[in-house]
Design brief:
The protein is of the alpha/beta class. It has twelve helices and nine strands. The longest helix has 19 residues.
Length: 296
């Protein structure tokens, strides 16, 4: 069965999220709503939906999301029962009516392909629920590294809500703790899939809301996002470069090179030197050293 986990904090768009769950044409799912000590109680809203959605509600006394959002995701998941598949749905995101049906319609092939991570097509909505982007679709089966590379190069988008993943794999890996959980989902799909294929369902969509209340929509957290990105790309370079093509490896290392040249972060020098020496080639190592000489 499928568990849909909602880490609740903001009430602004929560009713639309619940409405989308009530509208599902396939009811084979259970909802777990975890309140992260929010000052905005959802009780009155939940009462309107307690006959239409099967859910379990829990309020945590301590706000953890403000300290570590990925750790909050993990404690929300810990409330689930014996469901084999998990979705973490934002409290402002919306499913189209056939998302759960799409999952079950494709489940036999997903099992046949031994896939751990599933994603849906997506589209961005604004605070008023209006569509503000094209539909993002994906290859039916795509290597996780290629999927990430398309996002890295701006050819697609990705966020937590449009994925379903195996609980047993999650329990082995968990989420990486980055500031604002920025890139925590990217790393999860690489690791949860064991760098193998992600299965896409493009016939059903998840509508991802961007607003002044969402982490992606806010502009006052850019420094935290930058630090998270640097940590993420450093870890990719340290542990997983060999999983990527040579072109992709160069693009990943360039993120750290930019930080080195922008801020004269000499702690990165030996790392970048090693990455080029082992994972790219002598030509790119010489290019890096030449840039240092030119910028000296």
């Amino acid at each position: 069965m499928l568990a849909i986990v909602i880490p609740y904090y903001k009430i602004n768009f929560f009713e639309a999220t619940l409405q989308s769950l009530a509208n599902q044409t396939d009811k084979r799912f259970k909802v777990y709503i975890s309140n992260d000590a929010s000052p905005e109680s959802p009780i009155s809203v939940l009462k309107r939906w307690d006959k239409k959605i099967e859910f379990i509600y829990h309020r945590f006394d301590e706000n953890l999301g403000g300290i570590s959002l990925s750790k909050h995701w993990e404690r929300c998941i810990s409330l689930t029962n014996d469901e084999k598949w998990l979705m973490i749905l934002g409290d402002d995101d919306v499913l189209d009516s056939n998302v759960v049906k799409g999952f079950y319609d494709n489940l036999s092939e997903i099992k046949e392909k031994n896939v751990n991570v599933i994603r849906f097509g997506s589209q961005i909505i604004n605070k008023d629920g209006n569509l503000v982007s094209d539909i993002y679709k994906h290859p039916r089966l795509e290597k996780a590294t290629d999927s990430f590379w398309r996002k890295h190069t701006g050819k697609t988008r990705s966020s937590l809500s449009e994925y379903i993943f195996k609980k047993e794999v999650y329990l082995k890996v968990k989420f990486k703790n980055y500031p604002l959980a920025w890139h925590s989902d990217d790393q999860a799909w690489l690791e949860f899939s064991n760098f193998q294929c992600i299965y896409s369902i493009n016939s059903s969509l998840i509508y991802i809301r961007e607003s002044n209340w969402s982490i992606s929509g806010k502009r006052d957290n850019l420094e935290q996002k930058k630090q998270a990105s640097l940590q993420f790309y450093n870890l990719l370079s340290d542990k997983y470069l060999s999983r990527f093509t040579k072109k992709q490896r160069l693009g990943i290392i360039l993120i750290s090179e930019k930080e080195f040249f922008d801020n004269k972060n000499f702690a990165l020098f030996f790392k970048i030197f090693k990455w080029h020496l082992i994972k790219t080639d002598l030509f790119n190592l010489v290019k890096f050293i030449r840039r240092i000489y030119i910028n000296a």
